[in-house]
Amino acid sequence: MERKVRVRFAPSPTGPLHIGGVRTALYNYLFARQHGGDMILRIEDTDQTRFVPGAEAYIIEALEWLGIKFDEGVHIGGPFGPYRQSDRKPMYKQYAEQLLNDGWAYYAFDKPEELDAKRKEYEAQKKTFQYDCRTRSEMQNSLALPAEEVQRRLDAGEPYVVRFKFPADLDITVHDLIRGDVTMNSNLLDDKVLYKSDGMPTYHLANIVDDHTMEVSHVIRGEEWLPSAPLHVMLYKAFGWEDTMPQFAHLPLLLKPEGNGKLSKRDGDRLGFPVFPLDWHDPKSGELSSGYREKGYTPEAVVNILALLGWNPGNDQEILSMEELIKLFSIEHISKSGAKFNVEKAKWFNHEYLQKKSDEEFAQMFEPQLKEHGIEADHEFVVKVCGMMKERINFPSELWDTCSYFFEAPTEYDPAAIKKRWKPGMTTHMAKVIEVLNTVPFEYEALHKAILDDYIVANQFNMGQIMNSMRLAVVGKTVGPDMLTLVMTLGKDETIARIQRAIDVIGEVSE
Ligand code: GLU
Predict the structure, then answer these.
(1) What does the pLDDT look like over 111-149, one tens digit per residue?
(2) Mind spelling out the 3-state secondary structure of 81-110?
(3) Which ligand 1 atom sits nearest the alpha carbon of residue 221?
(4) CB of 207 shorter than 6 A to ligand 1
């Protein structure tokens, strides 16, 4: 029988979720949905020293914002719960004991200072110490100590850890759905700690026990876990769970825009783009790390950007909705090499997704900004301006800078534009424009004919200079939509007042 697809996103609550982690969650989600499978949110909080308050809630909020939904998880429960490893703590002991009884694990009593001394001893000989099949006999563990001594220490309640016992010189092959077979020799692998005498498992034990008991079929996670995969494969073997071992897919790293190394928060700060989905206030330092949501990215754009960082649909389609991604996603099209983050492309995606919003939705984003600037504008007028200007917007926060002159007459005029455009005689030209506005019907075609054709072209005046000066008078600088459209939007009286003001303030200039 085909096995039901069950995948999990298993973050550790050690801080805000990096967008690399968001991408892992997304790929799991796409895969689950495509196969009619289940998506699980499991919180891996066995390392209490790295626990950060608020991180779990942040992860849940971020994934909800992005539309990455779960069928089971820490926030919604489910038949395989609990879904937070600290709440599953009592479950793990029996599994550590099973490995000990079957000879796949051993007790180790080495104190931190003894391990330190050992490391130093090796360093002195220019070697690196690793607790493994070649060194374990020199250490304080149940393989090296006499059985009675081990029992005495256990009875006396001496702190211990349980370590995995890798067989010597064994080639371990991990079959990865992206990379194919990856083989590592056990001599290179250290005897990882699986369990501690305080009753807490480590990541490795808890992860395998949970994936098995939660009937996970596919483990899709970041490449940084590939070095741990041989241990994980061995654990499945040791427990006798090989038949139902999940299939592995290790995702390529997200790289810096320059391509050299892993994308970090510092790159984001340096280049002005977030590496987190939502703003994060560090509870200890109070430091703020900015998020995509607060920067004004739409969740659909972020999903689209992340989907294409390391995967492609096999053609050059770039704009892909969640529904399309679910249809098209395939592990075969995930690349082996790291994916470079492209800041400009990210902005482009946001632009494209913003354009899908209606003028009305834009107006709703803009109105709070207008209010902040003390402007009460007619709603219909705001909608109209948005319709005209939205094409120039990458982020909602740009609305004010891009459109403020529709709501506020300029009080200053760009000196460079004055120098370039406002030539001697310009006050006469502007007075003529006012005269036309006052006498000709206030209609686009009529104004076009009177100002451009009958006045400028017929008299062979400099079109660029006059029209740009008019723009300077109305806008304060030489930006904005088609000049006459702008005039029609602002209305006759407002336009005349603005041009008159520019004549008064800038005045006539000499050569
Ligand atoms: N807790 C691990 C992490 O934070 C999960 C690794 C895995 O998916 O196996 O990334």
Answers:
(1) 999 999 999 999 999 999 999 999 999 999 999 999 999
(2) CCCEHHHHHHHHHHHHHHHHHCCCEEEECC
(3) 8
(4) yes
